Amino acid sequence: MLDKLDLTKTTDDAKYDATLQEYKDKLSILQRTLREQKIPVIIVIEGWNASGITMAVHEIVHALDPRGYTLYKIDKPTEEERARPFLWRFWLRIPPKGRITLFARSWYTRVIAEQTQKHSWEKSLKRRVNEINTFERQLADDGTVILKFFLHITKEEQKRRLEERERNPLTACLVTASIWNLHHHYDDALPVFNDFIKETDTPYAPWTLVEATDRKYAILKVYATIIKTLEKRSDAAEEGKAKKQKTKEIVKPKKNLVKRHSHPEKVLTKDELQDTLSQLQVEMLELHYLLFKRKIPLIVVYEGWDAAGKGGNITRVTRFMNPLGYYVVPVAAPTVHERDYHYLRRFIKYFPTAGDIAIFDRSWYGRVLVERVEKITPEADWQRAYQEINEMEEEFVYSSGGGIVKFWLEISKEEQLKRFNERASDPKKVYKITDEDWRNREKWDQYDEAVDEMLARTSTDIAPWTVIESDDKWFARVKALRTIIAAAHRLL
Amino acid sequence: MLDKLDLTKTTDDAKYDATLQEYKDKLSILQRTLREQKIPVIIVIEGWNASGITMAVHEIVHALDPRGYTLYKIDKPTEEERARPFLWRFWLRIPPKGRITLFARSWYTRVIAEQTQKHSWEKSLKRRVNEINTFERQLADDGTVILKFFLHITKEEQKRRLEERERNPLTACLVTASIWNLHHHYDDALPVFNDFIKETDTPYAPWTLVEATDRKYAILKVYATIIKTLEKRSDAAEEGKAKKQKTKEIVKPKKNLVKRHSHPEKVLTKDELQDTLSQLQVEMLELHYLLFKRKIPLIVVYEGWDAAGKGGNITRVTRFMNPLGYYVVPVAAPTVHERDYHYLRRFIKYFPTAGDIAIFDRSWYGRVLVERVEKITPEADWQRAYQEINEMEEEFVYSSGGGIVKFWLEISKEEQLKRFNERASDPKKVYKITDEDWRNREKWDQYDEAVDEMLARTSTDIAPWTVIESDDKWFARVKALRTIIAAAHRLL
Predict the structure, then answer these.
(1) Tally of domains in chain A
(2) pTM
(3) Residues B340 and B219 both lie in one domain
């Protein structure tokens, strides 16, 4: 670990100049190859203050074609970012296929700061480690290469460098009181860094510890590691073209763990249901204010058969919500641009800020419904999605203190036919029915199986599914709103 | 104006219910029609505190399909937004083709707040009015419908409503001290609002003043105005399909106002130039720190012939810049998604934050170069672009305090051929040359004319063009960096 590193290592000028140029040329070529191979790369540079993070980034980017990389300097989160789950801003910054993203400081920065400042290390360590390892594993599973570097210097060296910066009028303003304060806590921070590095050093996102006393030695070590890793991946991709990746054995879930009925057990009149709905809408208005006041976010997911009444249900449920505190995210097929990223990114982007309600009209479950049935996504990928989705939902709930309500709107096959025909024959509704709806209907049984598996594998304690019996539209609206209200009460 | 409105107007319940439903149905149909016609719509709702802005937004969005609108509640700008030009965050929120964007408060909010709080009304009025009118006119020219509403109530009515909200435990927390403070300055604010409304009431973005004492009256007036305006536009679009829009008469600029030479007057050796460059790079390092410290942003635009050496020039110019304080924006053809917006939006998005340097490798000038020559954009549109670009650059400089440096990298036709052939025959460079480059070369004369006109019409006092004689690459690098350094000195 850090304290075992030999910080006296150096590189002489002659070797440095020759080797650096060679490395730069290699990296430049590798960048183009990886772009063609559509491999995304994340390079994280972490380390002590004044350990040379900026300088390392500097040397790397000068070998790169600016058309193919993005550099993020990670600072304190903005107000908007603070009102979101911890990893939200990093999800928005992941590289698309074929691009290199460099992080000068990263998701580790806040965690390290939290731990050293609050002295509550052990309490939240496990949670943070888990979040980060999951995040990195999901990206790696999607094909992203992740390289992480920690630049290490001694406390004495840090002091020397900070004093040097203070003497230079151009850099003096960068050495703030809080930087000196962190310096004085160097000895407390060291075991924390060690722990965290150990816990997050994984096969899919390994750490490289860098002896950073000698600038030149550090640069060459970073370069050598990047080149070796990228070459290995690029070669593997080349070979992999022929042989198919081996899919993990799939554990089939028990069937029908979640029962689905399309018709409500107890029949009420339309008038009774509308009265109840009006009362619930008023109750929701009040709850919405309270969620807003207490800064609790809520996600509501609508999935269901075509013509099950998602749109009408959403309109009724939101009738008395304050439009400044909720929004509907209509989910369609991903754009070309969106397809270049991990599939969860386009949903996480719309996750609600503290106090907001985000209603998803269709959602990330498309991965295990339409993408599965229509064979848009290989089986290995949608099989992996059940776990990824559970992790994402768990991460949202834990990290935001909010809730997730998920609806499956169930109608019978006969009821769907009736509604399709109604739409087709009503000039005011005909725009709602397309050839695609009819094609989907032909695959009813395949969708049925996919829905069963989805409900069985993603109905978790923190984000359970609620089946809404939607043959009766008014019943469906009442049940949906009642479920949201119950969830809000539990959160308040 | 506001003080002339009859605030006693009311609407009775029966009329309200019937008319509202009729309006909602109409708006719902209009939304679909406008989507098909690809017309973007902006609806701004402004007004006094407690005048019913939220309630008006509420009633409008409930008639809309959530798949086709976005609602923004405009609050104080975030830290990131504060570090950008005033209109930046609104440019990012404009609707794409066929979409409706509602603003609950808007770009007027900050201006009004500035004016009433600082009591410096007349000083900056002209500048702000000009900025806003230009912004709205540019969007309108691009086909956006802009509707602006101001909800008006008396001081007494405002007091009554604020007190009512204070009595309700759910809303009490919303009535802050600063809201009461604004209430006490109602009489000061009134003439300010009047002035501002008058100055920004334009044919392309007119204000509708709304008597908002009676909630129902206000809602119906807002609805009626929206429907009337959208119907008119939709009908015009229908008719307009046949007849071509009349293009304004074009004033041809004098030719060759900016002289172009591809070869430097004074010939220096490569060694001399490289020495000079090294010195300038060190000087730039220092200036970059100072720009960063004083939070001055800088834009550098690179345009030039294919193979003129833009990439190599940028690499040398940025050699010693801190990568955390500059970035290169490589500009390619717009994506499908980007094409749905006003063409300037995708560039404004990358404008630098305070203290950063943004280097554009190609830029918004593509509008009057490749889009003109390749006939991608109709003449009326690219002709309008010269003025739009000048306005955008001026707005950036005034509103950020930063600077813009623009380079045209000139090479001779012979030199280009030589470089094309070199690239084609060098396996390390062959990726740099494409069929498109050869096709562009065939249109040299057309590009030549477009460049002349661009330089003549967009070389302004605040953002002049610098022609870089690039037959000699090392000379070109020295001249570019020297020009940036001179600009930085002027800004500091």
Answers:
(1) 2
(2) 0.86
(3) no
